[in-house]
Write a structure and sequence with these properties.
Length: 73
């Protein structure tokens, strides 16, 4: 698993821009589509063009699981 830190750069497909864009890792609050949970201050990749969250690295999964009340074994 690659460990990312704030300020690292990558590329991802942005749903808003409809293309592959460069991204920068940053801490954000993320709400999920089903609105059952929101996670505060997790590391995410943010589109450099539109500023939307485009991906969440594996290292942020434990925080998401905890916010949703899911145990990871």
């Amino acid at each position: 698993m690659t460990i990312f830190k704030i300020g690292d750069a990558s590329q991802a497909i942005c749903d808003s821009c409809m293309k592959i864009t460069t991204t920068t890792f940053s801490y954000r609050d993320v709400s999920f589509n089903d609105e059952l949970a929101a996670v505060k201050d997790i590391l995410v990749a943010v589109c450099d063009i539109c500023n939307e969250v485009v991906s969440i690295p594996q290292q942020s999964v434990p925080a998401i699981s905890a916010a949703r009340g899911i145990k990871i074994s």
